[in-house]
Amino acid sequence: MDHRDQTGLGAPSDPTGWVSGSAGRIKDDCQAVCWLRSSRGVIRAARFEVFAGADALRAAGWLARWLEGRDIRDARAVTGHWLAQSAAMDAESRAEALCLEDALQAALAALPDEGGGCSS
Q1: 22 touches 103 (CB < 8 A)
Q2: Which ranges of the chain have pLDDT less than 50?
Q3: Contact 40, 116 (CB under 8 A)
Q4: Among 40, 57, 90, 99, which one is most buried in terms of CB atoms within 10 A?
């Protein structure tokens, strides 16, 4: 885990051993990059870079913390609707949950087929 902060926000200080996926566009008021590090089918560390409102930042930090230690299969089941409800996002911000979901799914797709990723 990147120990420079525990919020789950921001790119890892050293991206070696991480995979990433992105979604959205800044000009559409939401862009997210999800960074994952995994081993043996478990997410060891997760981070999000988010260019959106405060609600999306809070939800991304919450999701990053939730993902750590979870089986990759559990992460694949995350939906924007579930995230919006679980992170108590305001109704006006719920579209941003879809952007976070898309970034997560893109990062998951970048993991090696064996689901192990790189060692932590």
Answers
A1: yes
A2: 1-4, 114-120
A3: yes
A4: 99
Are the CB atoms for 100 and 48 separated by under 8 Å? Answer: yes
Separation CA 105–CA 99 (nearest Å): 10
Question: Which residues lie across from 4 on neighbouring strands?
Answer: none
The most distant pair of C-alpha atoms in the chain lies apart, rounded to whole Å, by 38
Q: Which two tokens stand for residue 101?
A: 């979901």
**56 touches 93 (CB < 8 A):** yes
Residue 81, CB-side half-sphere exposure with 13 Å CA sphere: 1
Nearest to 23 by CA among 84, 111, 99, 109: 99
Give backbone dihedrals phi and psi of 47, rounded to 5 degrees, phi first. Answer: -145, 155
Measured CA to CA, the distance from residue 46 to residue 39 in angstroms comes to 12
